[in-house]
Structure formats: structure tokens, C-alpha cells
Amino acid sequence: MTLRRALACSLTTISLTGAALLAHPATAHAAPQDCEGGRNGFIDISDNASGTPIRTLDMGSGVTITLQYGNISGSQRGWAKISGRTFSGDRVWMDWTTNGGSSWLQCGPFTVGTTGTSKTSAAKTTGTSSSYKFRACGNLNGGPVRCTTWW
Question: Which positions carry the signal peptide feature in this UniProt record (predicted)?
Fold first, then answer.
């Protein structure tokens, strides 16, 4: 094998290894309008909706993101909510998976419009399968994204 061929093989191996290390689970992003009005099984809810919190994430600065569930329109549904000392531009969304988190649909982001107000994601019917899960995610005014654990 020539030096040139050996070098080419080594560079190919390095680039393929690097690509594999950078790979992450597939995320399908849905704009807010893809999760509203019944699209993809999501329904609109009030930004003041409150249910049973099942996951809580302290974002700092008096802001909390929660994953909640409750009875909405006759079905148990889950949703994400950002509340507390929010600022315009803070964002929340809900990820939903049917395969335990290998891939998911990101429903949102939904952006706080007025300082000090809550914002919710659209709500999705919960399920009994251990592969059917939700998590709440968000960020404060362009800061780092943080998510709850899957539920």
C-alpha cells in the first residue's frame, strides 16, 4: 500500500468516526402551528392551564419549567409550561416520543410575549406504553436549552 493510499484510508476512517461521534437521536421539529388546532393529535390549551406537575426544572431567576398532565376535553393530556418571573422571549416546548426517546417530535417553541406571564405548549393525549413519553424543554431569552427527564 502506498503512503498516499494509507493516508487517504486513515483520513476517511477519522472523518467517519468523527461523524459517528457527532450523530445524535433524530428530532423532528414542528413549528407551533404544527401542534395547534388538533394537528398531530395536539390541542390548544390556555396559557394559564394547570395540572399535576410530574417533572419540574428550576431555570434560575425565579423561572420554572414543568411537565404537567390533567384532564382536558375529556382525556388525560400532557403539556409543558413555563412560569414565574418570565421575560418576553423566554421559550417552552414539549418533546414527544413513541419509541422511548430514540427520536421525537419537538412541539414548539412557544414564546412568552409579556413579561411575568406563563406560557404552555399544546397538549397531547398520554398513553400507557412505556415507549410513549413526554418531556418539557425551554430556555430563557436565548440561553442554553434545558429539558426535564422523560415521563
Answer: 1-30
Number of domains in the chain: 1
Q: What is the CATH number of the domain that holds 61?
A: 2.60.40
Is the separation of the CB atoms in 52 and 67 below 8 Å?
A: no
Residues in the chain: 151
Domain limits at 121? 25-147
Q: Within 10 A of 2 (CB to CB), how many other CB atoms are there?
A: 7
Other Cβ atoms less than 10 A from the Cβ of 41: the count is 14
**What pTM does this model have?**
0.78
pLDDT, tens digit only, all 151 positions of the chain: 443 444 344 433 333 334 333 334 556 666 667 777 787 889 999 999 999 999 999 999 999 999 999 999 999 999 999 999 999 999 999 999 999 999 888 999 999 999 999 999 999 999 888 899 999 999 999 899 999 999 9
The answer to whether 133 touches 87, Cβ cutoff 8 Å, is no
Which residues lie below 8 Å from residue 61, measured CB to CB, with a gap of 6+? 85, 140
Residue 122, SS3 per DSSP: coil
